[in-house]
Amino acid sequence: MKMSREIFCGATALALFLLLSTVTPAGAQEADDPTTILLILDSSGSMWGQIDGVAKIVIAKQTLSTIITDLPDNAEVGLILYGHRTKGDCNDVELVTPIGRIDKSGLTQRIQAINPKGKTPITLSIQLAGEALRTIESAATVVLVSDGEETCDADPCAAARQLKESGVDFVMHVIGFDVGDEERAQLECIASAGGGKYFTAASSEDFEFAAKTATMAVAAAPASGEGKVWIQDPKVFSPGTKFTVRFEAATTFHDNAWLGVVPSDVPHGSEQVNDRHNLGYRYIRGRTSGEDVLTAPSQPGSYDIRLHDSDSNGREVASATFTVEAATGKVWLDKNEFTAAENMVVHYSALALGNYAWAGIIPSDIPHGSEAENDKHDLTYKYVTSDPDGTLTLTAPATEGSYDVRLHDTNNNGSEIASVTFNVVKASGKVWLDATDYLAGQQLDVHFSSSSALGDSAWVAIVPSDVPHGSASENDRHDVDYRYIPGQTSGTVSLNAPFTAERWDVRLNDSTATDGNELAHTAFTVSIAKGTLTLDQTSFSPGDVVAVSFEVPEGLGSRAWAGLLPSSVEHGSAATNDLHDL
After folding, report:
1. DSSP class of residue 471?
2. Cα–Cα nearest to 546, from 556, 559, 555, 537
3. Which three-class secondary structure string do you get for 36-98?
4. In 86-145, which ranges are continuous DSSP H helix?
5. Residue 555: which of 443, 466, 391 has the closest Cα?
6. Which of the 8 DSSP states describes residue 562?
7. Cα(363)–Cα(192) distance, rounded to whole angstroms?
8. What three-state secondary structure class fits 264?
9. For 257-265, what is the mean pLDDT?
10. Last-in-domain residue among 512, 527, 542
């Protein structure tokens, strides 16, 4: 999927620690029964992924160091890590802090030492949590934080269900950190099986509300009051279109009251039912009136905006219906045949495209219709503007064949709404030099021409003649000098002859892509120049000026040089001479 969700800084760490920080602060009167929390923290390699330039694990460590001291002194806390010791090990799960009276300094030091490395064995983590929970007598809250799905060929949802059915007294909440639809489905199943809630977030504010809801859901009193929600006419949108929702809410609503997009065929009334089916939501955060922006679902149909008084077993108090209709449009090209890596101007015309509509190049043998399927196979793409008519530039694939430009209404399980087919053929070209023999370091004027305009990454290079011909990527691994020649059909560029006396080629390539092509080549030979040096005398006093006379062949490279060296330095290598010249 081409990601377009808003990214929030430190959400995984923030959500986890908000869950902790809602417990009675240190210094306050503590309950007779201490709070018991078992944390399962993702320490897999993906935690090195960055949010706004900062690694997620770094954000987590920084946040925890400021939160951990505010936990109650009598809190019972345990910590399970996974993926923190070795790469590729599905058994890398460890109860690093057994459940017990919190040691704030020790827990902080343990978390600061986390070095994410491995896989995501969620199932084994849940099983280890079960073993830890069986050693205590009190009820416990398990908080699982993950930025991905199980990667060890196991079923974490079944593991959570089995643990719940075994009679262990716990509730398991799951926090998903910037996860896709498939990952979310698995994490939601884990939370449901563990008797808890699944929390996701498109912003740090949403995450904070979700975390507070998880810790206060049992104690919160029912909300009361009425409200309303409405959408301005026309109430018809294309997939992926952002639209404005207006609402009024009672002062008695909870702070976590929310608006959500729910399919119209879902029965009305239950906030819990709506929560399981919502396709996008916003918390209203204590406002009694206002507006929010939501995104139309990717599939055509009838949907509701539903207003709820709480995110904790609340009520649906109002709704407004709208319709999503498939976008229509067309896409076309100025011609139906392009050379490999050639720039293509794509024209499109469409009505009411969504905010993340896109056009991409797809092999023609991929079945039409599904945006998600096209997304798996696109070779290049660009988002299109919301203007009804426009153009964009794409680069033709480097491999010959039949391809489509396909236009899509959104980037999240949307639909293909138009396509046009074109063929890619290998360009023909030639390259030549003014001579066939050059001195080491001498400048070569390289002339080239092509049957059509070359792509933006076309290039010429000097490559050893014994490197097999044909592949631009193979040439790229062996070139010793090169120049880009973007968009040109003919021209001249300068390269420098290598310093090794052997047979070389100048090769013309259509692209730097891994499947790019060599279009033409010409060979030349490099020889080492011979010259003479003479001195007017052979004996000098310190500080005397040494006058040197020399004769060299015409065409010697512009970086040729003469230097004064100790006679004990071995002859032959300019690099060695350079180390010792005085």
Report:
1. B
2. 537
3. EEEEEEECCHHHHCEECCEEHHHHHHHHHHHHHHHCCCCCEEEEEEECCCCCCCCCCEEEEEE
4. 104-112, 122-133
5. 443
6. -
7. 41
8. coil
9. 94
10. 527
Q: Is residue 253 part of a domain?
A: yes
3-state helix, strand, coil in the chain (%, to 5): 20, 35, 45
Rounded to whole angstroms, the Cα distance separating 123 from 393 reads 46
Q: What is the 3-state secondary structure (H, E, C) of 346-398?
A: EEEEECCCCCCCEEEEEECCCCCCEHHHHHHHCCEEEECCCCCEEEEEEECCC
What letters, b where the CB count within 10 A reaches 16 and e where it falls short, cover 92-131? bbebbbebeebeeeebbeebeebebbbbbbbbbbbbbbbe
* One domain for residues 239 and 357: no
pLDDT digits (tens, 9 = 90+) for 55-77: 777 766 766 665 666 667 888 88
Q: How many whole angstroms from its chain centre is CA 237?
A: 29
Structural domain range at position 341: 336-424
User: Would you call the peptide bond into 464 cis, given omega within 30 degrees of 0 as the criterion?
Assistant: no
- The answer on 412 and 448 residing in a single domain is no
The Cα–Cα gap between 392 and 357 comes to 13
Tell me the C-alpha distance between 433 and 438, whole Å. Answer: 10
pLDDT digits (tens, 9 = 90+) for 292-339: 999 898 888 999 999 999 887 789 999 999 999 888 889 999 999 998
pLDDT at residue 66 in the model: 59
Distance, in Å, from the CA atom of 342 to the CA atom of 213, rounded to the nearest integer, reads: 54
What is the pLDDT at residue 521?
95
- Residue 186 belongs to a domain: yes
d(C-alpha 125, C-alpha 135), whole Å: 16
- C-alpha to C-alpha distance for 310 and 284, rounded to whole angstroms: 10
Task: Give the pTM.
Answer: 0.49
Examine residue 349 and state whether it is found in any structural domain, yes or no.
yes
For residue 407, give both structure tokens: 């236009």
Burial class (CB in 10 A: 0-12, 13-18, 19+), 18: buried
- b/e 239-272 (16+ beta carbons within 10 angstroms → b): bbbebebbbbbeeebbbbbbbbbbeeebeeeebe
Total domains in the chain come to 5
- Please state, in angstroms and rounded to a whole number, the distance separating the CA atoms of residues 189 and 196: 10
At which of 401, 424, 447 does a domain end?
424
Q: Which helix (H) or strand (E) holds 273?
A: helix 271-277
155 within 8 A of 127, measured Cβ to Cβ:
no
pLDDT digits (tens, 9 = 90+) for 506-525: 999 988 877 788 999 999 99
Tell me what pLDDT residue 65 has.
Answer: 66
Shared domain for 498 and 468, answered yes or no, is: yes
On whether both 522 and 535 belong to a single domain, the answer is: no
Work out the average pLDDT over 10-22. Answer: 45
Phi and psi torsions of 338, nearest 5°: -135, 150
> Which of 431, 434, 526, 558 is CA-nearest to residue 482?
431
State percent of the chain over pLDDT 70: 85
Are both 374 and 499 inside the same structural domain? Answer: no
Q: Distances in Å between the alpha carbon of 287 and those of 100, 251, 395, 450, 570?
A: 41, 8, 49, 65, 84
Q: How confident is the model at residue 219 (pLDDT cuts 50, 70, 90)?
A: very low
My answer on whether 212 and 235 are in the same domain is no
Whether the per-residue pLDDT at 289 is higher than 70: the answer is yes
Residues 270 and 367 in one domain: no
